[in-house]
Model the fold of this input.
Amino acid sequence: QVQLVESGGGLVQPGGSLRLSCATSGSIFSFDVMGWYRQAPGKQRELVAYITGGSNTNYADSVKGRFTISRDNAKNTLSLQMNSLKPEDTAVYYCNGYFSGTTYWGQGTQVTVSS
Done:
């Protein structure tokens, strides 16, 4: 059984920083692609960023230059460094992993940006 567990969410003031982590366990040695999604209240889940096994990255326009995604292939962990946070970044953030036609999700971690 594959599990993805996020951590690092919380309350932060506008302009602040947070670092999210996603630990994986189970039978998959290395996901083809891993990513972060988020879902704000009343909105659809949206892609924040993804990273391939070869460390190619892609970001949503709304987070470019502020967020950085990274992965440790040896440990099969995923991180998201979030800087210059804005109130509109408030959402539940989900870790995601894709392998051999199947997508796996974590349970999510809440990020709240508010003064």
Observations:
- The first strand starts at residue 3 and ends at 7.
